[in-house]
């Protein structure tokens, strides 16, 4: 990734997202006109695309921050690959192929039949997606929970936002496998709230989510270790790329399933969520190139707390419906609080320095 001047305007990072928004909304209006033949139908589809884009953006603040956290340690070559190949996989893979793949598996039909079903019988398509929500939520919630816990259960972590929680978690990080034991206990606990086949499906999907996280960590570590032995500059290669792709997929589960509450048209969903995905890419690039994560020290903490809350929400969604708007606003609120805390910290530290004193030890902790 090329390193631009520090004076690069914030809006410059979003120019491709703005262009995608314009093109996507025009395409959405065209789809609305073609499918309904009325002005009101066209405006309805236009509005749905806009709402889906906002929904995806609100759900993806934490995704962008976590991406930036991992991306800043990747080599320039793999940074660029993630920002090009990765966005294609995110838009076309998760927003189009993933919903089709679910229907292919759940309905035992071929990919072409799934596309025909999405176009000709959207109500049936939406029903199949809805029925698949429980295992998807269990899988994605478990993977995201491991991502969040892995950040806080780190004995080398010495910057704490909510110190009374994070210090204890960092201290217990020396106990091998503690986060895995916690997640397994939570899986068993939630499974007791379900009955029959639902409980079995929940446990199976959740265990697969846990195994996927562990496999990605192992494979990523082995690949990056191999690259490092070949060249000291090769750290953060394919392993990190693989981790980010699976992470992005887990974040996408909630948005893709939630989108069917607004429309049953797969192509409208792809347009709306695709627009949102471009903003995630733009936010990721901006965070990396502007060094925002190092400037606002608690921003990462807010993102990982949001991830933990999202994972728990996905678990609860197997029991009751929780609107995606609440999930998005909750995550954005936590990130906003962490940003505000970071700004307060920077101001206190600046005041200490202006008085000619060393910054208070609590500020450095």
Notes on the structure:
- By secondary structure, this protein is mostly helical.
- It is 79% helix and 0% strand.
- The chain has helices at 15-36, 39-59, 61-71, 76-107, 111-120, 122-131, 133-152, 163-172, 178-191, 196-230, 238-259, 266-289, 292-295, 299-316, 324-354, 361-364.
- It starts with 14 loop residues before the first helix and ends with a helix.
- Keywords: Membrane, Transmembrane, Transmembrane helix.
Ends apart, CA distance between termini: 32 Å
Q: How does the helix and strand content classify structurally? A: mainly alpha
Number of domains: 1
Indicate the low-confidence ranges by residue numbers.
Answer: 2-7, 230-235
Mean of the pLDDT scores?
79
Query: How does the overall form come out from the CA principal axes?
Result: globular
Question: What does the largest sheet look like?
Answer: none
| Total helical segments | 16
- The counted number of beta strands is 0
H/E element order: HHHHHHHHHHHHHHHH
- Kindly estimate the percentage of residues that lie in beta strands according to DSSP: under 5%
Key words describing this protein structure:
disordered N terminus; 365 residues; mainly alpha; 79% helix
What order do the helices and strands come in, and which of them pair?
Layout: H1 15-36, H2 39-59, H3 61-71, H4 76-107, H5 111-120, H6 122-131, H7 133-152, H8 163-172, H9 178-191, H10 196-230, H11 238-259, H12 266-289, H13 292-295, H14 299-316, H15 324-354, H16 361-364
Helix pairs in contact: 1-2, 1-12, 2-11, 2-12, 2-15, 3-11, 3-12, 3-14, 4-5, 4-11, 4-12, 5-6, 7-9, 7-10, 7-11, 7-14, 9-10, 10-11, 14-15
